[in-house]
Amino acid sequence: MCVHGNCLPIQIQLNPITDMLTCHDVARYFLTLMSEENGDLISNLKLQKLVYYAQGSSLALLKRPLFPEPIEAWLHGPVVPVLYDEYKKYDSGPIPRPQEVNLERYDEESQALLNDVYSDYKVNI
């Protein structure tokens, strides 16, 4: 910005990609919502679909991606490869609830979207 010939640098604070949630953050959030007591368990396949629906919902409703990792079309549905690799050790069995999740990472808008996606799709996929 220049005023009377004196130029000063302007720093614009954008939301850097490092502040964006990752696919791992989204997955951990969904895993905290499951109710093992009620038989509400999440397999890797189900988790992949929930994360896919969350990304699509965010793009459609919030006009922004939730996470930067790519999604690929695989034989049994959409997959985030790095997320698949993290949870493939559970095969088709249930993934345990994470011990700790930092909920401060999730803004209110993202939490509401993830809650809605989980509520809408937890049984139907």
Automatic annotation (TrEMBL):
The residue ranges of the Antitoxin SocA-like Panacea domain are 47-107
Q: Which Pfam families match?
A: SocA_Panacea
Q: What is this protein called?
A: Phage-associated protein
Which organism does this sequence originate in? Answer: Candidatus Thiomargarita nelsonii
